[in-house]
């Protein structure tokens, strides 16, 4: 790793603003661009300023890529991380004031913050509140601090709460968020004994029988209000699976009459059931 000392061409800074040229650079990807930055500040918006800005971005891009590399193996592609870091670099170039110190000292936290913000806002598989994200970060940092010594036991929720000043409920919420950064595919195989099955195999499904129970209970009151003959007709039709012709023969009436009675009875039962549900919603 190279360590360079930047000096002015005359060897001695000739003004306070030039004194920043004597700061030490700690990386070989930190070029001497003080003159370009001074020129950028003096230029108005236009093609010439854009050209100087592009030149600065090109020279400092290796540093942005180095910072992006610190966040590899966290579920995001290297190319995407470099894109985010490059965006942070452009923001740093636009906001930098050459009279306030070395560009590297300003750019590194700016680019790092941009990458961290990308993880915070874009990388959660399910969007969670900012408050939960912050709890997750505090719990993660506390766990790291409490286990940094060899042989240290895994801290409990109470240990983390005492270390951070959070409540145990907040620590629990943060610990749950630690495991929720990414999702697991429903097709992922879960080994259990000799056989393996997918996560989807362990999930429950809606039971249609519950709907039948609800409908049956909703129809009871309407059925009670029907005349006995009409209740008998519905029972023969829907429970004994008799045709309308057989019902008509048994009761000594026409098939057309049976059809009208069934339609009228069903409409009455339905009206009572819907009236009960609407009344229940209104009362609630």
What does this structure look like?
The chain is mainly α. The protein contains eleven helices and four strands; from the N terminus they run E-E-H-H-H-H-H-H-H-E-E-H-H-H-H. Strands 1-2 form a two-stranded antiparallel sheet. A two-stranded antiparallel sheet has the order 3-4. Strand 3 and strand 4 (195-198) form a beta hairpin. The radius of gyration is 37 Å and the shape is elongated. Mean pLDDT is 80; it is low at 1-25 and 280-284.
Write the layout of secondary structure elements.
Layout: E1 4-5, E2 24-25, H1 34-42, H2 47-69, H3 78-95, H4 103-122, H5 130-146, H6 157-164, H7 168-178, E3 189-192, E4 195-198, H8 208-224, H9 228-238, H10 244-251, H11 255-283
Antiparallel strand pairs: 1-2, 3-4
Helix pairs in contact: 1-2, 2-3, 2-4, 3-4, 5-7, 6-7, 8-11, 9-11, 10-11
Please tag this protein with its features.
two-stranded antiparallel sheet, disordered C terminus, disordered N terminus, elongated, mainly alpha
């Amino acid at each position: 790793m190279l360590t360079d000392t930047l000096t002015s061409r005359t060897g001695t800074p000739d003004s306070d603003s030039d004194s920043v040229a004597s700061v030490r650079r700690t990386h070989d990807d930190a070029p001497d661009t003080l003159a370009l930055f001074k020129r950028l500040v003096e230029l108005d918006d236009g093609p010439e300023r854009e050209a100087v800005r592009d030149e600065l971005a090109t020279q400092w891009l290796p540093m942005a890529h180095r910072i992006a590399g610190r966040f590899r193996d966290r579920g995001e592609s290297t190319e995407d991380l470099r894109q985010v870091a490059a965006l942070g670099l452009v923001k740093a170039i636009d906001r930098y004031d050459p009279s306030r110190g070395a560009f590297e000292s300003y750019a590194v936290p700016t680019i790092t913050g941009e990458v961290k913000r990308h993880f915070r806002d874009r990388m959660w598989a399910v969007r969670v509140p900012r408050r939960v994200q912050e709890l997750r970060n505090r719990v993660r940092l506390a766990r790291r601090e409490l286990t940094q010594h060899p042989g240290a036991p895994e801290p409990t929720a109470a240990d983390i709460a005492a270390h951070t000043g959070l409540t145990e409920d907040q620590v629990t919420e943060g610990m749950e968020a630690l495991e929720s950064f990414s999702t697991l595919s429903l097709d992922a195989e879960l080994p259990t004994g000799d056989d393996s099955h997918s996560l989807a195999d362990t999930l429950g499904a809606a039971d249609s029988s519950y709907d039948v129970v609800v409908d049956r209970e909703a129809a009871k009151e309407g059925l009670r209000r029907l005349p006995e003959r009409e209740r008998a007709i519905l029972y023969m039709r829907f429970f004994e699976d008799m045709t309308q012709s057989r019902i008509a023969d048994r009761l000594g009436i026409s098939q057309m009459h049976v059809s009208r009675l069934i339609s009228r009875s069903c409409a009455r039962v339905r009206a009572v059931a819907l009236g009960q549900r609407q009344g229940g919603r209104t009362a609630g």
